[in-house]
Amino acid sequence: MQAKEFVTILATMPKKEVYQGLYINEAAVTTLKVDQAGDFVFIAEKNKAPLPIKDLLIALMTNKSRELYYWQDNDKQKIYGIKEKEAKIIL
Fold first, then answer.
1. 75/30 Cα distance (integer angstroms)
2. In the prediction, which pLDDT does 13 show?
């Protein structure tokens, strides 16, 4: 998934509640980094505050063509979609 597709999904999601943040399983995404390949990689760290949705959207909108990945189990995983669970957006 590219950043522009993720922004479109977030912008068109019905606003049932205020989202707490973006999560990988139960860990909150705390950092968004650009790796050596030029891709955005979401990094989740336990017991840290989630990256604000506003900051996430700004980063995604200014870099629309980047591919999205998340870091899990010492490996970069491609993002294909998201789901909602309670007030969380899960990758």
1. 17
2. 81
Sign of the Cα torsion 29, 82, 7, 16 reads negative
Domain boundaries, the chain: 3-90
What's the pLDDT at 38? 93
> For the segment 13-60, what is each residue's pLDDT rounded down to a tens digit?
877 777 888 999 889 999 999 999 999 999 998 888 899 988 988 999
Measure the CA dihedral 47/50/51/54, to 10°: -160
Q: Rounded mean pLDDT of 84-91?
A: 88
**Residue 9 host element (H or E):** helix 3-12
Alpha carbon 59 to chain centroid, angstroms: 10
Please enumerate in sequence order all residues whose Cβ is within 8 A of that of 42, keeping only pairs 6 or more positions apart, or say none: 22, 24, 29, 31, 32, 68, 69, 70, 71, 79, 91
Is beta strand 21-24 parallel, antiparallel or unpaired with respect to 88-90? parallel
